[in-house]
Specification:
Length: 269
């Protein structure tokens, strides 16, 4: 078992970047030593602790991009620059790729942010990257300027309502690229599980390796609480993932169909 420190480290929020009305990026100055696809547990003092994917890590600073979706994140949004929070991690397994490979990166909603972390690392290894990002509408798109600023990235934008880019889903954009002759060694994705499920089917149909960052309810981050254990195997996503291969995910009875909340109740997609 990997040795890591599970105690929280008190870190100051050095900068807060407003991405849109419901999403902020929190910048910390610390050598986190993370890999693309890993996550941390953030303790919001007096409120709660939640898992967040890492959006950027250059060894000097790291970013966490957070969407305001519940009571804990609502309290986080009240904090100002200079406030301190607790950070544990990094935890989980990241995306696996080699120098010079051809990658299709797919980000849906706030899943775009951790895929930016992958893109940043991939281009430094000479990979060729097609980055597909999507949202319900143009106002909810994330990181478009940051991604456009990366040299050597082919950016594709989709919105459900057609307010920017392709009208439709990220899965359709990927299918169009493949139909047009694009070749990929890997498909990596982070976003809604239903989107990931269909990406897995596309990858399998075309014989492409597919790795997906799986989001489950977590409390500890390193396999003690069992909260993120999945039906079909009982394995904890925080230890087996959160990045998992499609070949494994398609054997899980719940993937792409439903997830369980903090009380274990099923919620179907």
């Amino acid at each position: 078992m990997k040795n890591f420190d599970t105690r929280p480290l008190a870190l100051e929020i050095k900068k807060i970047i407003c991405e849109n009305e419901n999403t902020n990026t929190y910048v910390f100055e610390h050598n986190l030593k993370s890999k693309p696809g890993q996550f941390v547990m953030m303790w919001i003092p007096g409120v709660d602790e939640k898992p967040f994917s890492i959006a950027y890590d250059d060894g000097k600073q790291f970013w966490l991009t957070v969407c305001k979706v519940g009571p804990a994140t609502a309290e986080l949004f009240k904090l100002k620059e200079g406030a301190k929070v607790g950070i544990r991690g990094p935890f989980g397994k990241g995306f696996a790729f080699k120098k010079g490979e051809k990658l299709a990166l797919v980000g849906g909603g706030y899943g775009v942010a951790p895929m930016y972390c992958v893109a940043h690392k991939a281009i430094s290894k000479g990979c060729k990257v097609d980055f597909i990002l999507g949202a319900r509408n143009k106002d909810l798109l994330l990181y478009t300027q940051k991604i456009s600023g990366l040299h050597g990235i082919n950016l594709h934008i989709s919105t459900d309502d057609g307010s920017q880019g392709f009208k439709g889903f990220t899965t359709q954009v990927l299918e169009n690229l493949i139909a047009g002759g694009a070749k990929f060694d890997h498909i990596f994705a982070c976003g809604p599980e239903k989107m990931e499920y269909f990406l897995g089917l596309i990858a399998e149909k075309n014989g492409i390796d597919c790795q997906l960052a799986v989001e489950k309810y977590m409390k500890c981050g390193f396999g003690v609480c069992g909260q993120c254990a999945v039906d079909g195997s009982g394995e904890c996503v925080c230890k087996k993932g959160t990045v998992m291969n499609w070949k494994k995910l398609k054997t899980l009875s719940e993937f792409g169909k439903y997830h369980r909340d903090a009380q274990g109740k099923k919620h179907y997609f």
